[in-house]
Amino acid sequence: MISEGFQGVNGTTLALESQQEKAFPMVFPLGFGAFHVTRSPFKMSQPAFTATKMLTLGLTPGKLRGLQRLSNPNGTLTMVATDQNSSMIAMIKDSLKKKGENREPTFQEIVEAKIVLASTITRHSSAVLVDGYYGVWNSMVSLAVPRDVGLLVRVEKSGGQKSKLNAPLGEYEPGFSVGKVKRLGADAVKLLAQFEPTEGESAEHQLAFIQDVYEQCRKHDILLLLEPIAFPFGDEKKDSSSFLKRKAETVIESARQLSRWCDVYKAEFPGILGQENDTQLAANLKALNDASERPWVLLSAGVDFPDYKKQVEMAMHAGASGVLGGRAFWKEYFLQDGPAKQRAFAEGECADRVKQIDEIVRTKGTPWYKWYGLTLEQIHGLRAAEGWHFRYGEKFGAKGLAAGGEEWGY
Predict the structure, then answer these.
(1) How much is the pTM?
(2) Is the pLDDT of residue 51 over 70?
(3) I want to staple 40 with a disulfide (CB 3.0 to 4.6 A). Which of 15, 119, 403, 408 is the partner?
């Protein structure tokens, strides 16, 4: 076994094993083989690393820069989301109905809500997630997203096709692609892919979709954040006992199967507050942390803020590196009467909620580099080999893309 050991979280020693031991989907150039982060039964002295260390973790130049842009200075991630188009449209429609306007919101009404939220809840966040259709260009051109806040862009279509058992079959947002997200200057791609390991047709389709996005992100050297979501299928509803009974295991098993196909993993809370005791929830979170092969963050799923705050505290204790939450921060925004009160709510309550979560994340979250067993001191000492730029973004040994070389981009 080819193994390079280094100290991990809580004294755990991590090692990078060769392909003969564990399969890891990122195949690196220069004959690296495939690598997988795993626990080693023995400890080794701290080696002197080069920039190749990051390559073995899948953190190529573009991905590493993206991860840095999304992170707090200490390596944790306090990210907020405004990309929930379907939910936001439904909320705006309900608010209009209360005013006696029974109609769909206009494009401009949706855009303005997204701009207000993006310009306020980012005051205490390290990054913001926006959608491609309403959010990204409008947030950029209005300078709503602060210059020091990282930017993720959603690449999947809302809704879409269904399997014979009414399970989701994901697809790209029409008119959008990983290459377009990279060209926009965004720091990361976000892919939501609903996943149920026990529903074969949908699971197979979703895995292929995830792998395609993963390879596109590798080609364009941009960070990928993956968000699998459990779902009811067949005759089930969201409150069906059969769905609720398996949901925690689905969340954990999805991490086990899918987290290798991304750079940051976004997970649901594996359990239900008030229905399972804290001991069981903590055990579920530990199982999720053990299953994930990447630094992971907790989503909010639209729960009320007090519940989300408790979930975040428990997740950070279990090993999470941060959050990517949306509706728990801002869903009451649309209940406010008029634009002035909506903005006041966003600047006050919404921003304060993010500030509270940011404090928890910064003080209790596991920095992404510590999750990999690295220290900032080690990272600051990394250096690339001379001539690295000849090997980056071009087929090894080729004279370059202009001469017909194939792009592979380490």
Answers:
(1) 0.86
(2) yes
(3) 15
